[in-house]
């Protein structure tokens, strides 16, 4: 049963499993103790730190282990901001950072600080010059991911690092998605990562802080991990994380090239096989193993379940798959279609046949979901005459129904005529303009509907 | 090779190991995902939460998993204090809480709040009435351990909980050392624990918060663990923690009785076998598996290493074994001898022969350390006449040298004569009075030595 959600969590790498088992026997004691079990644990911890620092490209004393990538980000950002409190309270981040970064940004805003979210283009990439312009005299910290977790696009880390250096601003790089594939370009001041993304166990994050970076850990601390990550260390998991990072790095070049070719095949074939699909993210400057596409007139949750029944595990940034009923902030920032969104992220060792089988199955699965939702069959010529404005009341209806109703009404709209969709689903804000792009129709604009909380009227003009 | 440091960390319980291996195969995926691997992980997480809540004695939705006991304490205390910010900013704790609690207290003090440390008696136990008197109109939270981690003494949790209830103050109980042995008495509002203390894996802490307790998590949060513990959950470890808690509870009554008898033997035999030893902690109301004693004229670190060479792993609260060069705050709060301190904490399944062998080996090990340090051979009669005051300059010398020099000078002191020890070692503050207690001599008092940072003069009068 193919699992294509490696960017959420990967099955434990065989080397990690082996190292974990060994460390459960040898490394369960407290490395701070003086007895032989403690000393043995200390040796394992030191060796894991050295191996991991080597893979990260930093000194062992610059690296601490945290309980997760999220904690590394939360704690690292808080400490870096506090360390430069005198410079100011401004944080610059890309609009497509991991939610943990945006949670920290929200925390800063709530405490009276300021945040600039640098926008991205339609591929999900920030522009280094635009990022540079976001740096101010009071900028305490900048944060940029090495590559995006939802669409795979690589960010211009080296250029942004250079801009940060010139501005005297420390740069934190969230390398969660890329560290297994290779070192991050030089120039960062802080770096974070998460072991379960590269086939290590859960329970291990990395936080590297370059010597000389101002860093003031917040909250209570103990003597563990240089005072930067309190609590008894999860040594077996740390040992397994270090061993598996080394192992995946050893096969990264060959396996990366292989998965890159499989993803290229998905990127090329999906739009040929499935009508009305938008493949998103940068086709070249991207993670080897990850591709995301959105299907018009499809409910993301229904699509996920249908793929699951067909034996494929994927994830989705569609609003109907999130507890907040809003589309992923990444897709929103890119301004691309969010409905029927599918992220395919291939684990190491994914078989070519599994990808082929996915491409075989996908068209039927999408068609059945569309059929079930009553998605329109398109291609009607415009009528010669008809009412000049059509209003579709899709209030209370969830993604992708508003767009389906728009498409169904369209055959009756004359060229030059207007259609307005009333919707209180956040996804429509993204998906109605995206539909217009895909159909070559004119998106006129939106206005709020008085008296309806969240109600918005989206207007489209028929071009042909 | 007997390992007697279970209170620091215990080897993984066989049930935990088995559960961990199974969960590595079945529970590596993200439990927040909709695909089958995610749903399977979710089922495991829910089942682990239910089993653990049952063992704790709370509802599953009152319990979250944290990355460690320390993080449970740090985060739980911060959120409980913030939740009652309007009532006030006072925290009442016992003086012998785990350092994680005292770190949180220090954090509160630094932020302008107030802390009362309720003192303990010489067994390490707080008095419930004295604790009750520490509760004020502005007390936001009280914290009390179920049993002490260094000396094993059980605290009067039920009585203190009743006092807290009467005062309308929530009580946090740190059950790290006792949860494997049984449920904590009712009446707590928050409860914390740590899986690696009961034979579970590292990486799992527990934080239970009763419904209705005001609780405002601090710092950035995500959707994990009801917004109370951010970051990807370490599910294999959580599953192993739950399974091993159930397993150790099943054997707790029988194994507790067996270890209690072994500890009784140590408590009784050590003072018979080794001269000048003080066994500390409550002899009855205590953890089954833990005993602590201190040996006069012994360097704790040298004793640890000598026991280690003899094949026994123990820990110590002596100043010379800590990075801060101060004796354990627990021994200080109890006012007992800190030099030559040894904590023996027996893991489940400890063999009687190992304890017997420890008792065989200990006298020779202590004697050899004393011999190496030139500890005095005692029992001299007092001289008929001699100088009225002797001054011993032990400045710059570390525990236990100041006490050894005091004891060596004593034979030359006439009855009624004074001896003053000059020392800048923090341990002397505890150990000179403790020596007087053990020797039946009169401790006159201390005064600072002008011009010597940390320098103190301790004066003793010879009684017989």
Give structural notes.
Two copies of one chain form a homodimer. Chain A has 13 helices and 14 strands. With 464 residues, chain A is of the alpha/beta class. Chain A folds into three domains: 14-250, Type I PLP-dependent aspartate aminotransferase-like (Major domain) (Aspartate Aminotransferase, domain 2); 252-373, Aspartate Aminotransferase, domain 1, CATH 3.90.1150.10; 389-461, TusA-like domain (Translation Initiation Factor IF3, 2-Layer Sandwich), CATH 3.30.110.40. In chain A, strand 4, helix 6 (157-167) and strand 5 (171-174) form a beta-alpha-beta unit. The two termini of chain A are 45 Å apart.
* Chain pair with largest interface: A-B, 63 and 63 residues
CATH level-four homologous superfamily name of the largest domain in chain A: Type I PLP-dependent aspartate aminotransferase-like (Major domain)
Tally of DSSP β-strands of chain A: 14
Q: Which oligomeric state applies?
A: homodimer
Q: How many distinct domains of chain A?
A: 3
CATH class of the largest domain in chain A: Alpha Beta
Strand order of the largest sheet of chain A: 1-7-6-5-4-2-3
Provide the β-strand percentage band of chain A.
Answer: 15-25%
Summarize the amount of helix of chain A as a percent range: 25-40%
Order of helices and strands of chain A: HHEHEHEHEHEEEHHEEHHEHEHEHEE
- Average pLDDT, all residues of chain A: 94
Unreliable residue runs of chain A: none
> What's the helix count of chain A?
13
Task: Tell me the span between the first and last alpha carbons of chain A.
Answer: 45 Å
Radius of gyration of chain A: 24 Å
Instruction: Tell me which CATH architecture of the largest domain in chain A applies here.
Output: 3-Layer(aba) Sandwich
Describe the global form of chain A: globular
Helix/strand/pairing class of chain A, anyone? alpha/beta
Query: Main beta sheet of chain A: strand number and arrangement?
Result: 7 strands, mixed
CATH topology of the largest domain in chain A: Aspartate Aminotransferase, domain 2
């Amino acid at each position: 049963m193919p699992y294509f959600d490696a960017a959420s969590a990967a099955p434990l790498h065989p080397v990690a499993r082996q190292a974990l088992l060994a460390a459960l026997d040898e490394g369960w004691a407290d490395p701070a103790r003086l007895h032989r079990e403690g000393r043995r644990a200390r040796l394992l911890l030191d060796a894991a730190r050295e191996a991991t620092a080597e893979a990260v490209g930093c000194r062992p004393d610059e690296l601490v282990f945290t309980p997760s990538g999220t904690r590394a980000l939360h704690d690292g950002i808080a400490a870096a901001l506090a360390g430069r409190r005198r410079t100011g309270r401004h944080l610059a981040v890309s609009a497509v950072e991991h939610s943990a970064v945006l949670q920290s940004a929200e925390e800063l805003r709530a405490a009276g600080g300021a945040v600039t979210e640098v926008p991205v283009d339609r591929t999900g990439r920030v522009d280094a010059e635009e990022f540079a312009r976001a740096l101010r005299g009071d900028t305490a910290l900048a944060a940029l991911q090495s590559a995006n977790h939802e669409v795979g696009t690589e960010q211009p880390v080296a250029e942004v690092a250079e801009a940060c250096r010139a501005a005297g601003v420390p740069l934190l790089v969230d390398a969660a998605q890329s560290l297994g594939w290779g070192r991050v370009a030089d120039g960062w001041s802080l770096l974070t990562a998460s072991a379960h993304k590269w086939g290590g166990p859960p329970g291990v994050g990395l936080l590297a802080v370059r010597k000389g970076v101002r860093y003031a850990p917040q909250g209570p601390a103990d003597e563990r991990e240089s005072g930067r990550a309190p609590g008894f260390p999860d040594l077996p998991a740390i040992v397994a994380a270090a061993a598996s990072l080394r192992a995946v790095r050893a096969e990264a070049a060959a396996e990366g090239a292989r998965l890159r070719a499989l993803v290229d095949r998905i990127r090329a074939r999906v739009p040929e096989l499935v009508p009305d699909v938008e493949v998103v993210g940068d086709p070249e400057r991207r993670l080897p193993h990850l591709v995301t596409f959105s299907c018009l007139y499809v409910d993301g949750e229904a699509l996920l379940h249908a793929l699951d029944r067909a034996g494929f595990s994927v994830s989705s940034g569609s609003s109907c798959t999130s507890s907040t009923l809003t589309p992923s902030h990444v897709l929103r920032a890119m301004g691309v279609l969010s409905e029927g969104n599918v992220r395919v992220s291939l684990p190491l060792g994914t078989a070519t046949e599994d990808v082929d089988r996915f491409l075989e199955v996908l068209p039927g699965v999408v068609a059945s979901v569309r059929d079930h939702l009553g998605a329109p069959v398109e291609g009607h010529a415009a009528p010669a005459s008809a009412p000049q404005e059509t209003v579709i009341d899709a209030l209370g209806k969830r993604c992708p129904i508003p767009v389906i109703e728009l498409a169904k009404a369209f055959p009756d709209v004359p060229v030059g005529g207007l259609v307005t969709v009333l919707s209180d689903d956040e996804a429509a804000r993204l998906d109605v303009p995206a539909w217009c792009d895909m159909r070559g129709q004119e998106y006129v604009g939106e206005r709020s509907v008085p008296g309806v909380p969240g109600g918005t009227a989206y207007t489209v003009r028929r071009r042909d």
